[in-house]
């Protein structure tokens, strides 16, 4: 770990001591944003009871957080070039902490939802530029290792959210789930002001119309995918898809004409960047689909309790946490696409083994299959993210970071939607959905293998 903070002659990025503090800022900022996406789920029944609202309404506490974040990722990535990533990250952190206080003090659902939406905006501001900040903080020779830390932190956040929520609720009421963010946010904000790299602002305007079009397109598509998983009507889904597709088409036309585009379409001319985006999206479809499927498999088919199900999930993120930093370090020395392809092959084996799992399987059979998926995803994520960020010039780092976060969000959302679609079929079952996840993993592997013939790029 100490090698990450050594400064060598000719290094770009921050000096070692400042680099250490900046990484602490990114770790805690990411943890707060990611943990809050999952920690609150366990408190929804308590919140519904205290606020005297139904389950169908209280789930919007989770949905709104994710929806607002998805709608604003690309816009925030572009805005960071005008106000600098440092100031945007600090502003997002401050908004997140303030909104957390508002959530803790809210005593009716409407106010809680308003503060929750602002919390989602703050989280999106941080997550949209997180990978690009790692690129500016660390020297190029350590980019894979840095993104390995990022992957480890995200995995830990998703894994620990429900457990942390359960611990807090065992000793305190649900408002404390939000209140705990406030002191942490203040401390991390002060460290961010001191340590995050300063940079020049880009001259020119902000494409407000493009931001609105992207928000409508992304928001409509996320809601449509959520509707697929919850049995929305055909007319409603068609309208949402039409709205999302039309807004997306208008957004692309707008980006081709505007002087300062929200998302420079030229970055997609780099084939390795575009292929890394496709591979990432397909891999997150597979992971999102598997996570939901396994909940149904363990509880409805195999008869485990929700708490036992949570423990059966643990090997997946736990192995990612152990493997991702190592994979990132190796990716600084070998071809990242090759390592990512190896990880996808292992992930595919794990998904197929889960699809073949029998209803009376022993716990050890469940655990090694789940761990195999975690091993594959951990080997894949850091190298692929390195390929993603390093294949475009540094001037496009913020835009690439926004695309990376958006692809991850949509991949997971599409995976969840596909589970609902498969289970709604007359012959649909959990195993069929897991086979569909395996197909997504196979598609990701084939695309990843296809890029091995391309010349590696290393942009600065």
Automatic annotation (TrEMBL):
<dbReference type="InterPro" id="IPR020846">
    <property type="entry name" value="MFS_dom"/>
</dbReference>
<feature type="transmembrane region" description="Helical">
    <location>
        <begin position="432"/>
        <end position="452"/>
    </location>
</feature>
<feature type="transmembrane region" description="Helical">
    <location>
        <begin position="362"/>
        <end position="380"/>
    </location>
</feature>
<feature type="transmembrane region" description="Helical">
    <location>
        <begin position="235"/>
        <end position="253"/>
    </location>
</feature>
<keyword id="KW-0812">Transmembrane</keyword>
<feature type="transmembrane region" description="Helical">
    <location>
        <begin position="310"/>
        <end position="330"/>
    </location>
</feature>
<feature type="transmembrane region" description="Helical">
    <location>
        <begin position="337"/>
        <end position="356"/>
    </location>
</feature>
<feature type="transmembrane region" description="Helical">
    <location>
        <begin position="87"/>
        <end position="107"/>
    </location>
</feature>
<dbReference type="InterPro" id="IPR036259">
    <property type="entry name" value="MFS_trans_sf"/>
</dbReference>
<feature type="transmembrane region" description="Helical">
    <location>
        <begin position="208"/>
        <end position="229"/>
    </location>
</feature>
<dbReference type="InterPro" id="IPR011701">
    <property type="entry name" value="MFS"/>
</dbReference>
<feature type="transmembrane region" description="Helical">
    <location>
        <begin position="21"/>
        <end position="44"/>
    </location>
</feature>
<feature type="transmembrane region" description="Helical">
    <location>
        <begin position="401"/>
        <end position="426"/>
    </location>
</feature>
<dbReference type="Pfam" id="PF07690">
    <property type="entry name" value="MFS_1"/>
</dbReference>
<keyword id="KW-0813">Transport</keyword>
<feature type="transmembrane region" description="Helical">
    <location>
        <begin position="273"/>
        <end position="298"/>
    </location>
</feature>
<feature type="domain" description="Major facilitator superfamily (MFS) profile">
    <location>
        <begin position="22"/>
        <end position="455"/>
    </location>
</feature>
<feature type="transmembrane region" description="Helical">
    <location>
        <begin position="113"/>
        <end position="134"/>
    </location>
</feature>
<protein>
    <submittedName>
        <fullName>MFS transporter, DHA2 family, multidrug resistance protein</fullName>
    </submittedName>
</protein>
<feature type="transmembrane region" description="Helical">
    <location>
        <begin position="64"/>
        <end position="80"/>
    </location>
</feature>
<feature type="transmembrane region" description="Helical">
    <location>
        <begin position="178"/>
        <end position="196"/>
    </location>
</feature>
<keyword id="KW-1133">Transmembrane helix</keyword>
<keyword id="KW-0472">Membrane</keyword>
<dbReference type="GO" id="GO:0016020">
    <property type="term" value="C:membrane"/>
</dbReference>
<feature type="transmembrane region" description="Helical">
    <location>
        <begin position="146"/>
        <end position="172"/>
    </location>
</feature>
<dbReference type="GO" id="GO:0022857">
    <property type="term" value="F:transmembrane transporter activity"/>
</dbReference>
